[in-house]
Structures are given as structure tokens and as C-alpha cells.
Amino acid sequence: xxxxxxxxxxxxxxxxxxxxxxxxxxxxxxxxxxxxxxxxxxxxxxxxxxxxxxxxxxxxxxxxxxxxxxxxxxxxxxxxxxxxxxxxxxxxxxxxxxxxxxxxxxxxxxxxxxxxxxxxxxxxxxxxxxxxxxxxxxxxxxxxxxxxxxxxxxxxxxxxxxxxxxxxxxxxxxxxxxxxxxxxxxxxxxxxxxxxxxxxxxxxxxxxxxxxxxxxxxxxxxxxxxxxxxxxxxxxxxxxxxxxxxxxxxxxxxxxxxxxxxxxxxxxxxxxxxxxx
Length: 277
Prior knowledge:
Largest sheet: 8 strands, mixed, barrel
CATH architecture: Alpha-Beta Barrel
Shape: globular
Distance between the termini: 5 Å
CATH class: Alpha Beta
């Protein structure tokens, strides 16, 4: 299937522009009890074939007053209040339940908070959920940002090795935004690098951004791990990344993050187009 602009939406852009709200621990707890948190799913696309290879689950708060609320408005409070593990468990449960409805060939990516990586029960929670929803851990990629990895390398390595031993894929987010993560990356069992949208958005007119992307891809190839570019917004970015050697991409050019029902409809339509193109 050729890469073409078929699905775009300003939904999350509008949501991101909303004024930030001061949520507290009590409101977050109430939202958890009333099932107000949901995962939205954004497809990840093979940039060569155009096939869907998986989905990233993105946490959203469906607030009864303020509407769809992005994590930047509540994650920090949840981390400080000790509620982040409860949100992580919500995301795992909803994501794995959705994943059970998909082809077993598709992978599922989920971002893990800096604080949740300190939780020694994380591995047990993931293993239990995989068993409950009949999910192959090898189809799950857990993303960690640079801060989570560098804050306590010794403890982080212990948890990451456990996760890797149990079959989970490990990704590092915001790759290319800085280079302090490179020495650590070489010593840890990561399987995936996420190329940051700040580089992707500038690649058309910035040689420095292109050089950074190339360096990231070359490092990944040297370490034998895959690359995923996020924030792809147009055809030039998609094709340019493919020509630079990036294998997988995601962004509004392909699809916005969607609720479960919308995601399943989108996937069916995309697969039909792929089959007959």
C-alpha cells in the first residue's frame, strides 16, 4: 500500500490547547473509582509496506466537566500522590483487554511512568495480566523515558532485566532529544528506540534534525534494535524517514489516537485498503 494522507483530525491538537486544570489526588481517585480513565490507540505503521504492525495505548481522562484531558494535566499529581501505579494498572488492564481482540501478530506499546518503574510488583502485574488476557509478552513493548532510565540506573537495570527475561519488549522514548541516554542504552536490554517528534517536525528544513535522526537510526542498527518515529504529519516526513532507514512510524498523517470502537473500525478499513492497493 502506498503511503497517502487518508486520515487526519485536529481532535488532540484542540485538546492540547485547553487550559491546564489543577487536579488533586481526591479528584484522580474519584475518576479511577468511576472508570473515567480510558486508553486511546494510535496505530504504528510499517513505512515500507503500509501495514499496521501495532498500536500505542495513550491514557486519557474523560472528565465529566472538562472533557478529554491529556496526561500532562494529571500524571505529575498522580506520581506525587502515589496514585501512578493505580493508573498504570488501569492502562495495562484496558490495553490488554483491547489487545485480546486484535490479531496476535500485532504488538501493543504502553508508556511506563518514571515512578512505576520503581514498583517491584510491576513485573508480577504484567505477567498476571498477560495470563488473564492470553497475551504473548513478546507482543508488548513497554516504553520508558530518559529520566526513568537515568534517575537510578542500578534499580532500573534490575527491573528492565526482569521484564526482558519475561519476554516483554523495552523501548526508550524521546530518543534523539538528547544523548545522555546512549551509554546507558548500550548496557540495557532495550529492543526499540522512539525518534522524538521534535526531530521529525523539523526534518524537512533542518539538516541538524536529519543528522540526529540518521545518528539515532545508525545507533539502533548497531545495537540490533528497531526504530519508531512519532509525530509524522505529512507525506514528506513519512517518505523521508523511510529513506533514512526508519522502519516504523506513527502520527496524525496516518491516524489520530482513537477510542477502542473507532480504532477497530479504522483498522478494518485500513486493512481492506492495504489488501486491494
